[in-house]
Write a structure and sequence with these properties.
Layout lengths: L1 E5 L4 E5 L8 H24 L10 H25 L5 H10 L7 H6 L5 H4 L13
Antiparallel strand pairs: 1-2
């Protein structure tokens, strides 16, 4: 059992490990990065929707996963380079639905279209408005 003091949150975090060759800081960093990986795989499962895999061998699944990772990183780089206000998922969707259109990528992912909701000038009651 190792204890790490998180100065940002001002609390102690206790980890149980069977790796006695690394420090408490290394255990805490591994745990922190574990959650980054979990979030990434959650995103892959939610956004890389394939009806069928290219194959079911270990090599086919690995290849499929690497292609998904490369596509994600390319879209993330495009989003960062153009400073797009959209999420990575939204950028991927915009690129996918506009793939056969002749449109400038910068214009596509940096200039949000005015939505119908933004054009409405309606005072609506909300759950917490007074009725009196």
């Amino acid at each position: 059992m190792v204890t790490y003091h998180d100065s940002e949150m001002d609390n102690d975090v206790v980890f149980i490990t069977n790796n006695f060759e690394i420090s408490a800081l290394e255990v805490a960093n591994l745990y922190r990065h574990r959650w980054d990986i979990e979030v990434f795989f959650k995103w892959v499962k939610q956004n890389i929707v394939e009806k069928t895999l290219w194959g079911y061998s270990e090599n086919a699944v690995r290849t499929h996963l690497w292609v998904a990772i490369i596509a994600y990183l390319l879209i993330a780089k495009i989003k960062a380079d153009y400073k797009s206000p959209y999420s990575i998922t939204e950028v991927a969707t915009l690129i996918r639905i506009s793939a056969l259109e002749k449109v400038d990528l910068r214009d596509l992912i940096t200039k949000p279209k005015n939505s119908i909701i933004q054009k409405q000038n309606v005072k609506e009651l909300t759950l917490f408005d007074d009725f009196y």
